[in-house]
UniProtKB/TrEMBL annotation:
Its EC number is 6.1.1.1. It comes from the Eukaryota. Gene3D superfamilies: HUPs, Nucleic acid-binding proteins, Tyrosyl-Transfer RNA Synthetase. It catalyses: tRNA(Tyr) + L-tyrosine + ATP = L-tyrosyl-tRNA(Tyr) + AMP + diphosphate + H(+). This is Tyrosine--tRNA ligase. It is found in: Cytoplasm; Nucleus. GO terms for molecular function: ATP binding; transferase activity; tRNA binding; tyrosine-tRNA ligase activity. PROSITE patterns: TRBD (PS50886). One of its GO terms (cellular component) is nucleus. One of its GO terms (biological process) is tyrosyl-tRNA aminoacylation.
Length: 648
């Protein structure tokens, strides 16, 4: 600890330290534990913040970074966990060999960014998860934990953080338990993370005492929306700005950001101003006041201030607006920015430009360090191989038949699915890394390389004799971005989150004349998700919104059907009586399945969405019944005035 930092720590009262530790947080669990340790004064507080090295880190990380600075200022010992095992377990996002390179990339980029905003990185302790998570003691505790946790509780704990599918990998259910054990093995008093971690934190508070360990406190920051209005994600390039993006890239992404005039909710641009720009500039001012101006030295990797030269005193954020539109704007508080935006004195285009300039300024020293550091560049290429380097060569089949089981049949191999091929590759790489003989190909892979001609596949045994509503994949979605179609006045171009690992889908809907764009943004909807993608005016739509048409016809109005209250993106929906049946992966257009089922979709007199038809085991001549469209949270419904409507 530097002398000035030590002096500041000594000057702060217990209340001042606690206020500093907890300021700007969305929620604190166990604050009394923190106060008790501060009050006793026997030792410094200890905490950890963890990150799994999967996708490339982005500017959303600025939010926890400013809090790490607060913790250090309050005299807390801070550990940064580079959770490589967690990254590997998170639905196989990357093989362990690639994760190891990403650990080094994360370490470098995090240190460089922290220096850029004036955080004393020499006081941080970086820890790699595998350095202790592979020990005998840790694994024994993991087994003990598994013996007392149900599948339901494990899935629920990780639902907001780990990518889960209808039939999740076991690894995704181990993830929350490891995160709980980390608190014990890192010997901390509290864990810090985003509010999306809350279920894991509560899970840890419940499970650690059962293992004989102390319950820790948990601090949570709010989640900054991405540029599309949804959660900023390292795996969704369109929702975030990479730490190494160029000013041109940054300006382009901000220009396309979701930022409706006068609207604050789910406005990722305004949220960035509130949660990043002002906290960073406040940190800069506090460093100067606390005698730590050396942390702001540009020659040592610090960024420049975000107030324009010649700005009024106390300005923290300036927007360089052209004189013809009123000239530059200067702000000392976020509240003033928001008020101008809500009152429409600050146009979205000017706000976007100001934020783009601010981000470019903050990231300038990061880009300079990267461009001048050959080792940094090499690690980045190893961690995230370029598309050109990673692209497979044009081969009809693997050059060595021994590796055929590591490739799908489409790639010239013998694996039945991409998951089988990925698992085979991972097992091969793990054996090589451990200095062991790789496992031999499975017998079926060898047989596939023989000269015996393949037998034709038998027809599916369970193919229904008639189209059934269960063949249609109905799911809850959330519109995270929306704008007019560039070439069709009647169409909206939407980005809809259906809770899928690959991110939101592009969806087109002809609702421009029926529903204002501001009422569509952020809305929960019902999507038909297994229609064959169809192009409309040059853009493919990868799903369809289920909408209600007024019983008098379209002139009476068209509105999207709403899912049950409390639904989340990705929740499955079904027709009553057809529960538990898996929909087709993609509907065959030639069989007219949706076209046959859709005319029987309707709303009841109480606006409940339904389908009128016979049950799955009934004869086609049976009396049709109204069967509600529902999910685990309840029944789907149409807006007021859409009683007895048709659905399409």
């Amino acid at each position: 600890m530097s002398s000035s930092a030590a002096a500041l720590d000594a000057q702060l009262s217990i209340e001042a330290k606690y206020d500093l530790i907890t300021r700007d947080l969305q929620e604190v669990l166990g604050g009394d534990k923190i106060k008790d340790i501060l009050r006793k004064g026997e030792r410094p507080l200890r905490c950890y913040w963890g990150t799994a090295p999967t996708g490339r880190p982005h500017i959303g990380y600025f939010v926890p970074f400013t809090k790490l600075a607060d913790f250090l200022k309050a005299g807390t010992e801070v550990k940064v966990l580079l959770a490589d095992i967690h990254a590997f377990l998170d639905n196989m996002k990357a093989p362990i060999t690639l994760v190891r390179h990403r650990v080094e990339y994360y370490r470098l980029i995090i240190r460089t960014v922290l220096k850029a905003i004036g955080v004393p990185v020499e006081r941080l302790n970086f820890v790699v998860g595998s350095s202790y998570q592979l020990t005998e003691a840790y694994n024994m505790d993991q087994y003990r934990l598994c013996a007392m946790v149900t599948e339901h509780d494990a899935k629920r704990a990780g639902a907001e953080v780990v990518k889960q599918v209808s039939s999740p990998l076991l690894s995704s259910m181990l993830y929350p338990g490891l995160q709980a054990l980390d608190e014990q093995y890192l010997d901390v008093d509290f864990q810090f993370g985003g509010v999306d971690q809350r279920k894991i934190f509560v899970y840890a508070e419940d499970i650690l005492p059962k293992l004989g360990y102390a319950k820790r406190a948990h601090l949570m920051n709010s989640m900054v929306p991405g540029l599309k209005g949804s959660k900023m994600s390292a795996s969704d390039a369109g929702s975030k700005v990479d730490f190494l993006d160029t000013p041109k890239d940054i300006a382009k992404k901000l220009n396309e950001a979701h930022c409706i005039e006068g609207q604050v909710e789910e406005n990722g641009v305004l949220a960035f101003v509130k949660n990043v720009i002002f906290p960073i500039e406040r940190l800069r001012e506090e460093n100067i006041a606390g005698g730590n101006a050396d942390l702001l030295d540009a020659s040592k990797g610090a960024s420049k201030r975000l107030a324009a030269d010649g700005a009024p005193p106390n300005t923290l954020f300036s927007i360089n607006r052209p004189d013809k539109f009123g000239g530059g704007l200067h702000y000392s508080t976020y509240e003033a920015v928001e008020k101008d935006f809500v009152d429409r004195r600050l146009h979205p285009a000017d706000l976007k430009q100001g934020v783009a300039d601010a981000i470019s300024t903050l990231l300038e020293p990061v880009r300079k360090e990267f461009e001048s550091n050959a080792d940094f560049q090499k690690i980045a290429e190893l961690a995230y191989p370029s598309e050109k380097a990673a692209a497979p060569k044009k081969v009809v089949k693997p050059k060595n038949p021994r590796f055929a089981h590591m490739f799908t049949k489409e790639e010239g191999g013998t694996a039945e699915t991409a998951e089988d091929a990925q698992a085979a590759k991972a097992a091969h790489e793990a054996a090589i890394a451990a200095g062991q003989e790789p496992p031999p190909p499975p017998k079926q892979a060898k047989a596939a390389t023989s000269s015996t001609p393949k037998q034709p596949k038998a027809a599916p045994k369970n193919e229904p004799s008639r189209p059934l509503p269960s063949q249609i994949d109905l799911r809850v979605g959330k519109i995270v971005d929306i704008k007019p179609h560039p070439d069709a006045d009647s169409l909206y171009l939407e980005s809809v989150d259906f809770g899928e690992p690959d991110g939101p889908r592009t969806v087109l809907s002809g609702l421009v004349k029926y529903v204002p764009i501001e009422k569509m943004s952020g809305r929960l909807v019902v999507g038909v998700c297994n229609l064959k993608p169809a192009a409309m005016r040059g853009i493919k739509s990868h799903a369809m919104l289920l909408c209600a048409t007024h019983k008098s016809g379209k002139d009476g109005g068209v509105e999207p059907v709403a899912p049950p209250e409390g639904s989340q993106p990705g929740d499955k929906l079904w027709v009553e009586g057809y529960e538990g049946r898996e929909p087709d992966a993609q509907l065959n257009p030639k069989k007219k399945i949706f076209e046959t089922i859709q005319p029987a979709y309707l709303t009841t007199e109480s606006r409940e969405a339904a389908w009128k038809g016979v049950g799955p085991d009934e004869d086609e001549t049976a009396e049709p019944k109204v069967r509600l469209i529902k999910g685990e949270k309840g029944v789907c419904f149409a807006p007021a005035g859409f009683e007895g409507a048709g659905l399409s």
